Amino acid sequence: MRWFWYLVREAYTNLRTNRMTTVVAIVTTAFTLACVGIFVLSYVNLRNAANWLQEDIKIIIYLDDTMSRDEVQTLQERLKTDRLVAALRYISKEEALGEFRAQFPTDFHLLEGLGDNPLPASFVVTPAPDFRSPEAVARWAERVGSIAGVAKIDYNQEWIDALAAVIRYLELTAIGIGAILSAAAVTIIGNTIRLALFARREEVEILQLVGATSAFIRIPYLLEGAVLGGGGSALALGMLKMGFEVFRHQIGSVGRFHGVDELVSFFPLSVSAAFIAVGMGLGVVGSMISLLRVGERRR
Amino acid sequence: MFSPEAIIQLIHVSKSYDRRAALSDVTLEIAKGEFVLLMGASGAGKSTLLRLLIGEERPDQGQIFVHGRNVGRLKQAEVPYLRRKIGTVFQDFRLLPNKTVFENVSLPLIVQRASMADIRRKVIEALRAVGVEHKKDQPPNSLSAGERQRVCIARAIVNGPVVLLADEPTGNLDPERTAEIIELFKLINARGTTVVVATHDPHVMTLANRRALTLMQGTVVQGPG
After folding, report:
1. A295 confidence band (pLDDT: 50, 70, 90)
2. Is A214 at the interface with chain B, CB within 8 A?
3. Tens-digit pLDDT profile for residues A172-223
4. Does A3 contact B116 at a Cβ distance shorter than 8 Å?
């Protein structure tokens, strides 16, 4: 096990010896990853908000007045077994009239002149969570719309499309910004490792001469990269958490946003752990790039 | 043509840097257990030859065999395992200043993942063999040049190499220390290790009084012996 402790000690010694470079690398990486974190956090919260909003999506199936009670019953059974349907509510013509009267008591006289109840019976469908995408809803509406007795299907297509577009845009932006800033983090850590390698080139040469494998030489630097990346991402996470709490406190104190502070949330523990793991991974990648030429044989 | 006893063989080996020949059609053989001096002025090709033997360079032409392995054809991943059979000593010692003498000498054993008990035993044995056991806890920079070279030799022999290569090992030493180091090489050789010492110093040849191969402008002008 001495060899293992040797590798760990080498990584630690290197970090300690180049204290200033280490601190600068961790802080720079932290700021870079914090920028990524801001986007990811915004994306996660907006996505949550979008999910809450999407839960309110309702599809209304208006029925022909000519449909018999049995036909309505058959259609109801069919809809109940449909995978897209999470919840189903039947509103008879009488219930529709009652609801109209309750919602628009002053405008009720408008319907009186029309004689018979002009409002159609309908089904109100709440789509299942997996089928709330605009494409799924549109496909389903087209299919159900062709069933005999269905007069019209109503849902807010534009609103759904706009929401999906915003989420897609945020996703793409988060991926783009994340990729660019991750590359920056890799470069920062890679350069730090390159400096460490340069400072310790004599030691690397000696290790090669005494029969150290490339892996043995590289491991301390990979560990160092992981520590820099992990340290940077942990610090970024701390900065984000502080910023998040300040933001939540501020928004909670503004009257018109009252309640919003309860809706926004920080990364759960699993995502925080993943964030640090990604930081460590970026550090290892940065080290690997710097170590590519180590152990190469001269021609 | 070549003896089965040979531990080092070079067959028509050439090596150039930027079209300047460092070694030209060198053929030589060193037997197992032999002590050979590689003589020649600076730039004669001594260091190039040693670098080729440890797989740090590949020959442009020819074949090199060390301990039965064709060094020129070794994959990069195999080179460390060849080097574990070869001890190397340099004029500039190449010791790590931030580590103690003990830690410097233990490096070849650590990279081979030896146990702590083995490391302790072998390092102490090697330091005792070269006469600097009492300096084991000191940093190399606190030692004299002769002592540092002894530490370097201890590091080279600690894992029992079959070949010991020394590149100008006495270049930084006074005549008295030079004689001590050559005596040390003779002792190591007497225990069965093949020793190759590259030097430009005729005094070393006199002290060693062993077979000498002379290189001049990349060719062997005396030998292969």
Report:
1. low
2. yes
3. 888 888 889 888 888 888 888 888 888 888 888 999 999 999 888 898 889 9
4. no
Domains of chain B: 33-55+74-222 (3.40.50.300)
Res B222: pLDDT: 62
Contacts by B167-170 with C-beta closer than 8 Å and gap 24+? Answer: B167/B46, B167/B47, B167/B50, B167/B88, B167/B89, B167/B90, B167/B91, B167/B198, B168/B46, B168/B90, B168/B91, B168/B198, B168/B199, B168/B200, B169/B89, B169/B90, B169/B91, B169/B197, B169/B199, B170/B91, B170/B199, B170/B201, B170/B204
* A211 CA: distance to closest CA in chain B (Å): 4
pLDDT at A255 over 80: no
Separation of alpha carbons B49 and B60, rounded Å: 12
Which H helix or E strand runs over A149? none
Residue whose C-alpha is closest to residue B198's, from B28, B79, B60? B28
**Closest alpha carbon within chain A to B120:** A2
CATH assignment of A58-155?
Answer: 3.30.70.3040
Contact between B80 and A297 using a beta-carbon 8 Å cutoff: no
Helix (H, G, I), strand (E, B) or coil at A258: coil
> How many Cβ atoms from other residues are within 10 Å of residue B174's Cβ?
12
Residue of B nearest to A212 (CA): B111
- The distance of B111 to chain A (nearest Cα, Å) reads 5
Across A47-51, A233-237, B4-8, B66-70, least confident range? A47-51
A192/A287 Cα distance (integer angstroms): 8
- Whether B88 sits inside 8 A of A6 (CB atoms) is no
What pLDDT shows up at residue A160? 65
B149-187 pLDDT tens trace: 999 999 999 999 999 999 999 888 888 889 999 999 999
Domain ranges of chain A: 2-53+162-291, 58-155
Determine contact: A210 vs chain B, CB below 8 A: yes
Chain B hits for A12, CB-CB cut-off 8 Å, are: none
Contacts of residue B123, Cβ cutoff 8 Å, sequence gap at least 6: B102, B105, B106, B109, B136, B154, B158
Do B177 and B132 meet the contact criterion of CB atoms below 8 Å apart? no
pLDDT tens-digit series, residues A20-79: 888 888 898 899 889 888 888 888 887 777 777 766 778 899 999 888 888 899 999 999
Question: Quick check: B94 and A205 in contact, CB under 8 A?
Answer: yes
Closest-CA distance, A22 to chain B, in angstroms, reads 19
Give the per-residue pLDDT at B224. Answer: 47
Three-class secondary structure of residue B172 per DSSP: coil
CA distance B31 to chain A (A): 23
Q: Which of A206, A208, A211 sits opposite B81 (nearest CB)?
A: A211
- Which SS3 state, helix, strand or coil, does residue A194 take? helix
